[in-house]
Amino acid sequence: MAAPGWQTRAVPLLLIRHADAGSRSAWDGPDRARPLSAAGQAEAAALVGLLEGYGVKRMLSSPYARCIETLEPLGVALSVEIECDEALGEGHGYRATNLVRSLAGEDAALCSHGDVIPEVLLALAAEEGVDLGPHPRHPKASTWVLESSGRVFVAASYLPAPG
User: FRET label pair with 121: which of 73, 131, 138, 146, CA 20 to 30 Å apart?
Assistant: First the structure.
């Protein structure tokens, strides 16, 4: 039994959609290598001021260049190395959901894609009862702060893209 006054700290996990990378059709290289646009680079830099106070100790990214580049300024500011994980790549919503669940209780930031993030959020809402509000959204450079207590997610809040 816990001592009187002892409380479990809610631990945030940041789920970030990559910043603007421009049009797929305007890029003639492999999609995995498509970098952030100039606007996306500015968004990634602005995420630092928005997210550095969350105490992130671990950063995981889709192996796509645009996701890694979105996390790089925050990683530099926090002196945290970015780990690439294929589970956060496009088309891997189920794997990403399992990864997110495995990280409950860790101070982490994850960067993924527009097809993956809603799948993760809907799974947490349906299976763990996390309230996402009436109209969950996930535009580029936005963040969902997922709070866990122990190994269970208990709350979520939305942070719009900076600027």
Answer: 73
